Amino acid sequence: MTPMAETVTLSDTTSSLLTSLDPLLRTWLPRQRWFAGKGRPVTGFTAVAVTELLRPDGRLGLYHLLLRVHQPSAPGAPPHPGDCYQLLIGVREALPPRLAPALIGHVEEGPLAGRTVYEALYDARPAEVLLEALRTQARVGGLRFERDPQQEIRTGLVARMMTAEQSNSSVVYGDTFILKLLRRVVPGVNPDLEIPLALARAGCPRVPAPTAWLHADVDTDAYVLAVLQPYVSGAADGWDLALRELAKGEDFTAEARALGRATAEVHTALARALPTVTLGHTQLQSLVDGMKERLTEAVQAVPALRPYERGLCSAYEALADLAAEGRTWTAQRVHGDLHLGQCLRSPAGEWSLIDFEGEPARPLAERRMPQPPVRDIAGMLRSFDYAAHSANVPDPDWAHACRAAYCSGYAEVTGLDPRTDPVLLRAYETDKAVYEVVYEARHRPDWLPVPLSAIRRLAASDPT
Ligand SMILES: Nc1ncnc2c1ncn2[C@@H]1O[C@H](COP(=O)(O)OP(=O)(O)O)[C@@H](O)[C@H]1O
Ligand SMILES: O=P(O)(O)O[C@H]1O[C@H](CO)[C@@H](O[C@H]2O[C@H](CO)[C@@H](O)[C@H](O)[C@H]2O)[C@H](O)[C@H]1O
């Protein structure tokens, strides 16, 4: 392996590097699934940090970039400095055919003129450089590669990029580890590292324990950029399993019940490991205000929601009324974006939960706030509904049975059946369905009818 370059932030070549990459990235970036600013033109870039990981004087170069992407603000939104993205740019004389899908473009001027730049994660060698840096706890420029000293990282593991549609990007090493590189990054504690670390310390086996992680220090800001964790080899995710069973007309309630139990175990461990708070009238009112605000924004973004706005709002008002009568709820750290795709079943039949990033579009501070655990439960209930409504022949009875089994499983562990608090549950399911409408409109417009069918039911106060 080519040794990692000594350091460094390339103050003198940074601007010419960026100038030469600029026209290529303007075309390539908006086409990436993980690019959150789709629909608005990219007007320029600023380097937050550029670090040379492999000097491109040999056959292969590798740059780590934190890049602020300038775009006009969304209509009605306040001016925004632009999102910061993490990129790994490979540099070669020419790309071998196997790397054709990774092409970013051919550089015409500047220090890399005549070279080809590409998405380096597709390429085993640069990806292996990252694993080696984590293994050896390297420091390169502002990049801090760290690891849990109790877990071994073997050398010689071969890297392959995951090609699934994701909000971030992941590389699998052998069948042993998976490295998730966060794409849109903000400074501060990231729940995708914070929560699994807390659960590992609490001895909760339902979440793979982080093995290593990457930070970047930029001025006084610290960013979490990547997390390495054990790979659950041969696992199937809950979404694929559910669709498979649905297609065969098979019952999925035993798995739904097991998922309810797994969620409850994670919630119980999180309530012990991290702070909990009691939500009284004032706190609940501000949660409800947040839900209403999201609904208003969603209606602006997706006008198809407008006919249901009143009905949906009544779900939030019913919750505010309960709080005004003096009801209180306990809030704790939760998953924040739980759905069937975030649940992995090992070949031995054990369920794990992954991806504690929360809803990627929400501010970090909001994603780290304690919330009623029903938020995750609502996410899973929505997911059973999603599966049933994306099947060739929608099967609402299948969704109904899974939702019931999931709640029963949850109650078996915690003693609390979420269905005994229907007002809270409806408000959270509504909030999630509204989020999904915006998510689908932005990322997968063909899927919009799925959450919209739930919106119609929720607005008429019949979530099933
Ligand atoms: N520990 C793991 N073992 C096996 N597969 C995993 C593991 N963690 C993630 N995956 C796979 O990687 C995919 C993406 O991971 P996820 O954390 O959800 O990333 P994203 O935030 O980009 O959606 C998952 O859907 C799952 O298939
Ligand atoms: O997995 P991510 O953290 O990137 O979550 C985002 O993408 C999900 C889709 O991949 C999206 O989930 C929605 O679609 C799922 C089926 O593909 C379904 O199971 C979920 O219930 C539904 O919410 C998720 O909302 C989004 O944040």
UniProtKB/TrEMBL annotation:
Keywords for the protein's UniProt record, in alphabetical order: ATP-binding, Carbohydrate metabolism, Glycogen biosynthesis, Glycogen metabolism, Kinase, Nucleotide-binding, Transferase
Reactions the enzyme catalyzes: D-maltose + ATP = alpha-maltose 1-phosphate + ADP + H(+)
Lineage of origin: Bacteria, Bacillati, Actinomycetota, Actinomycetes, Kitasatosporales
The enzyme's E.C. designation: 2.7.1.175
Family membership: Belongs to the aminoglycoside phosphotransferase family.
Keyword Hydrolase part of the UniProt annotation: no
Domain of life: Bacteria
GO-annotated biological processes: glycogen biosynthetic process
Subunit structure and binding partners: Monomer.
UniProt GO molecular function: ATP binding; kinase activity
Organism of origin: Streptomyces dangxiongensis
Chain ranges of the Maltokinase N-terminal cap domain: 28-123
Protein name: Maltokinase
Transferase found in the keyword field: yes
Pathway: Glycan biosynthesis; glycogen biosynthesis
